[in-house]
């Protein structure tokens, strides 16, 4: 009786049943890069990686592939046995399985180039929160700030060595930080790039450390930086100052500085984008008779004409009295809402005059007069 396969290895790798060993190798490498646990932290990625590795181990070995094609057995039914093993045991079984295909070695080779570039690392980005007044945001300003950061050591220039003569190139990797070795796999001979075991990927050795930074290449300093805040700056905007972050490790490039602008609440105005809003009191007489009042602006006081019969809550728009538009041209407006002030206490004469006014206007009671 022919045993039915629990898993279709060809389907798992996405290849046909007559696929060549090279096609299987390419399919495996493509899927392995996608699901390798070091690169994919998604749920089920490790299990998927185990599955494709299992499929490649069987189809990449001529003897096991022939057995699989004839009897349809999956990996856990082969004599070596995978059932019940955890993932790490599963992976190591490939390396010691007798057919010369070390998956860990293969992946170390696939990704060693990426790690080797870490010999010099870019410095960290920094954030600085700056609080300014609304008036400063309106007209823009230059501001000097002090940033504590790791800076390149002046003594060694970031090398970490006391002198150039105290830096030796690794003789094992010739300064590259990686080693290349040949491996025999079910897909033929492959070259794997691994991190140099002698210099740990650094490519060099410092024989005598810089006495100022103790070989780190960086020292903590405070740096004064002048930043320019644009006109109309809005709350929460980030200004990027390139290269003003922390110095990189081992001579790597510096990070960037991000200055986050916060606008202090104003005691008079509310702001929405480039528009300003303000409430101003208006006397009962001026509301009735009309006239001219003074209103506050960001540039000082200004005159505002009030027509007779103005009702409380009326909003007057003063063009170009707002803030510059940071994302366009021109300025916003200042929106003045007048609030009519009704006198709370009146003397006898004031009451008499209001009563006469009411009579002259025609006294009405309620909605129906």
Defining traits:
disordered C terminus; about 375 residues; three-stranded mixed β-sheet; four-stranded mixed β-sheet; single chain; about 25% helix; 9 helices; alpha+beta
- Poorly predicted regions are 1-5, 75-105, 107-118, 365-369
The end-to-end distance, rounded to whole angstroms, is: 106 Å
SS strand fraction? 25-35%
What's the SSE pattern? Answer: HHHHHHEHEEEEEEEEEEHEEEEH
> Biggest sheet: strands, sense, closure?
4 strands, mixed
Mean pLDDT: 81
Number of helical regions: 9
Helix fraction? 25-40%
Major sheet: order of its strands?
10-11-15-14
Shape: elongated
Derived from helix and strand composition plus strand pairing, the structural class reads alpha+beta
Using the CA coordinates, give the radius of gyration.
38 Å
Total strand segments: 15
Describe the fold and architecture:
By secondary structure, the chain is α+β, with helices and mostly antiparallel strands. The chain contains 9 helices and 15 strands. The protein has helices at 9-13, 21-35, 45-59, 62-71, 87-95, 103-116, 134-139, 284-289, 348-361; strands at residues 126-132, 141-152, 167-169, 178-185, 188-195, 204-206, 218-229, 238-241, 257-263, 270-272, 275-283, 291-297, 300-306, 315-318, 334-341. The protein has a 4-stranded mixed beta sheet. β12 and β13 form a beta hairpin. The chain is elongated and about 115 Å long. Mean pLDDT is 81; it is low at 1-5, 75-105, 107-118 and 365-369.
């Amino acid at each position: 009786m022919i045993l039915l396969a629990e898993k279709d290895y060809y389907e798992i790798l996405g290849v046909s049943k007559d696929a060549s060993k090279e096609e299987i190798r390419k399919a495996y490498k493509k899927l392995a890069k996608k699901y390798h646990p070091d690169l994919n932290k998604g749920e089920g990625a490790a299990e998927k990686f185990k599955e494709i590795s299992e499929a490649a181990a069987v189809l990449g070995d001529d003897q096991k592939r022939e057995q699989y094609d004839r009897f349809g057995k999956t990996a856990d039914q082969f004599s070596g046995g995978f059932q019940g093993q955890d993932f790490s045991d599963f992976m190591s079984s490939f390396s010691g399985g007798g057919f010369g295909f070390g998956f860990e070695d293969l992946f170390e080779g696939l990704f060693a180039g990426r790690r080797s570039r870490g010999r010099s690392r870019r410095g960290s980005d920094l954030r600085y929160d700056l609080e300014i007044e609304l008036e400063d945001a309106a007209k823009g300003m230059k501001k000097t700030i002090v940033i504590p950061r790791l800076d390149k050591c002046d003594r060694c220039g970031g090398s970490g060595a006391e002198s150039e003569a105290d830096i030796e190139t690794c003789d094992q990797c010739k300064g590259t930080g990686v080693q290349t070795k040949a491996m025999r796999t079910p897909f033929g001979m492959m070259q794997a790039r691994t991190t140099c075991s002698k210099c740990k990927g650094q490519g060099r050795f410092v024989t005598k450390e810089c006495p100022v930074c103790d070989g780190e290449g960086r020292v903590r300093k405070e740096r004064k930086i002048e930043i320019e805040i644009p006109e109309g700056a809005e709350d929460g905007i980030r200004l990027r100052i390139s290269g003003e972050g922390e110095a990189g490790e081992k001579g790597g490039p510096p990070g960037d500085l991000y200055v986050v602008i916060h606008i202090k609440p104003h005691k008079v105005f509310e702001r929405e984008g480039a528009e300003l809003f303000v409430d101003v009191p208006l006397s009962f007489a001026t509301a009735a008779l009309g006239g001219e009042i003074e209103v506050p602006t960001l540039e000082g006081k200004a005159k505002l004409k009030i027509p007779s019969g103005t009702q409380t809550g009326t909003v007057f728009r003063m063009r170009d009295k707002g803030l510059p538009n940071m994302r366009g041209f021109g300025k916003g407006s200042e929106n003045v809402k007048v609030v009519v002030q009704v006198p709370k206490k009146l003397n006898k004469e004031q009451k008499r005059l209001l009563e006469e006014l009411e009579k002259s206007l025609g006294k009405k009671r309620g909605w129906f007069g």
